[in-house]
Amino acid sequence: MGEHVGARPLEEGYVAIGWHELGDLRNYPDREAYKAAIAERIPDAKTGAQPVYAGILFRFTHEMQAGDIVVYPSKHDRMVNIGRLTGDATYLPNDDDEYPNRRGVEWLGHFPRNDFSQSALNEIGAFITLFLIKKHTSEFLAKIGLGADNVVMQPSEDTSDENTDDDTATVAVSQQAQLTTGDFVIRRIMAGLDGYEFEEFVAHILECMGYTARVTKRSGDGGVDVIAHKDRLGFEPPILKVQCKRKTDQVPRPEVDQLLGTLGEGEFGLFVTLGSFGRQSTDLERNRPKLRLIDGEQFVGLVLEHYRNLSPRYRSIIPLKQIFVPDLPKP
């Protein structure tokens, strides 16, 4: 269960809800019909969660109307995408990703998560698939130049008016904690480090990973900000040439090409950003074994993985403490 993840909804103009086990969701007229179908066709669905799921499916198929504004936070690139629904629900039975139930969307804007308040991000970061944004409507609408009188739907579920089971609620809290931590880490880096200091931080992370790393001169680096290697002196391959971008929006393909153009024999390219990479760049990475792209979400993962070994300076900029959260499977 969940919204369609990845780049295809943005490129092809839709949001999708899946539920291929139920077939065409337009065949069910009300919430009771959805509940009965879930009980019959998805026997693993917990009884307490069935009303929540029925509410999601009814809202997606029947309640949402053309012209409504939809907010889709895409995890793969840490962007908040805002668009307008363009028509009724459709059904594509042969969808490769098993997300056959769709709503068409005209995307009006794509914004880094860092552009929004943490409170607004928390509202759209809930666990289940669909709900009506209530608290931060004006903040999202302002990004696309609209007033607060528009309906804003979001691919996550507000369970305040639904009963849900304990495991579902627990997973929701755990995932929200992880999302909030990622937002916090990136905000603190943006506020506490300038561009050159971010390059030094990336070099420090590489050193925590067992590399010897040095930052190049502030100018004339030819697209290379950090050079790293396993041997102490840097004579033995592989040599890593690293480009660092302290920004939260999408890195254009030409910047990745620039890094590739610097590589010689025995050299590998690593591009690190707090933002994301477009489809052209990720396709390039798949076809170039000497290229590795690290986006904001992955970089946060490296920070958390090596946090214990960070210098006191960086731990003071990004103050964190370890906690344990439940690791339950997604319902």
Describe the protein in words.
By secondary structure, this protein is α/β, with parallel strands linked by helices. Helices cover 36% and strands 21% of the residues. The N and C termini lie close together (7 Å). The protein folds into 2 domains: 8-164, no CATH class; 190-317, Trna Endonuclease, Chain: A, domain 1 (3-Layer(aba) Sandwich), CATH 3.40.1350.10. The protein is elongated and about 70 Å long. β2 and β3 form a beta hairpin. The strands form 3 sheets. A 6-stranded mixed β-sheet has the order 1-4-3-2-6-5. A 5-stranded mixed β-sheet has the order 7-8-9-11-13, with helices on both faces.
The number of domains is 2
Q: What's the number of helices?
A: 11
Uncertain ranges: 1-5, 156-163
Distance between the termini: 7 Å
Rounded mean pLDDT score: 85
* Rg calculated over all Cα atoms: 22 Å
Q: What keywords describe this structure?
A:
single chain, 331 residues, alpha/beta, Trna Endonuclease, Chain: A, domain 1, 2 domains, six-stranded mixed beta sheet, 11 helices, 21% strand, elongated, disordered N terminus
Quick recap:
This protein is 36% helix and 21% strand.
